[in-house]
Structure formats: structure tokens, C-alpha cells
Amino acid sequence: MADERGASAGVSGGAPEAGLERPVDGWLIDDFRDPTHSRLGTSWRAVSDQVMGGVSSARMHRIHSDGRDALCLEGEVSLENNGGFAQINLDLAADGPLDASGHAGVWLIQRGNGADYSLHLKTFATRLPWQSYRAGFASTPNWTLVRLPFADFVPHRLDQPLDLTRLKRLGLVAIGRAMTAELCVTEVGFYRDAKIGGQ
């Protein structure tokens, strides 16, 4: 059974930045213009701890706001029945691993209810459902660009370091405490460096 329990990662690696331009040399995973598939050809899904007997809820829906298409996670996270998470996630490749070793981290443009969220990465080393690599960020009321360096991702319930050549899945997660989840993302991708600018 899936188990995504555990405290969310700290938010030190996810400081918001001014400007909403994509990072230079960024690899765009999704800008949510296609209502059914990401730029990688895979589809987002919503998952909660109900898969392991919990009572949290997770819903996803699409919006168009401020000229942007976005995907939103909404739900209620409960710690009852040993639960505690709601998420939207995306397989990064239909067949085999995705290699992001030429990149420095994940960027996303997000807005939410001010709560802390986690971005989880899974690789082919995360064989058990509760294993992942995690970095946290604080949501903001206005569209804000957040960069999460790969160096800030912390392994959860496994010892292997993050292998960027074998990425499998990316998830945006409300986890570890009772909360209302309200998070929208209008772009997500990998960036090569810290510069911000046009494509």
C-alpha cells in the first residue's frame, strides 16, 4: 500500500523570486496548455492517502487565470487512520527513466493558500511507495517563480543519493499535517543555472 507519510521538507530551498520568466536553458515539463497531456506526453493524476486507508481527499482541476493555464491541487489532508497526504503527480517518461543530469534543479510558477508544500521526485531506486526525494516550498497568493536545486532534495526512507539519470516521477504534495490544500502551478520544468530570463 502506498505510504507518503512524514513531515514535509523545509522551505529553505524554495525561496520565491521576482519575475515569472522561464529560466534560461530551461527544459519545460508542462505549461498546461494541453488539457490531457504534459509536454512529455504523460498525464497528471491526483492521489491521496485513501489508497492506504486514510481519509484525506485530493482533487485536481484546470483553470485559466491572468492569461495562464494552470493545474490545481485541492483537498483536505487528515492524519486520521495513519494518513496524511494529498498530491498531484506526473510520470516523467512513458518508457524507462528520464535523464536530467545536465540540469541544476526544478523550477515552478505557483500560487496557493500560503501553506508549505513539497515537491517529490522518484527514481528507479525508490522501489517502495513511501520512498522519495523531497524539497519544500511555501506557496504564495500571487504567481511566483520558485527554484528547487537538486542539491536540496532530501532522501526519505532510503539511503541512495538522488540519481538524476534515472528520474521516474514528479509530485506536488501536501503532506505531514492536517491542512487544506490549495495549490496551482502554471509552469514546471528543469533549469540548468540560476539565471532568469527569456527562453
Automatic annotation (TrEMBL):
It comes from the Bacteria. Signal peptide: none annotated. InterPro entries: Galactose-bd-like_sf, NADH-UbQ_OxRdtase-assoc_prot30, NDUFAF1. Residues 42-177 form the NADH:ubiquinone oxidoreductase intermediate-associated protein domain. Belongs to the CIA30 family. This is Complex I intermediate-associated protein 30 (CIA30).
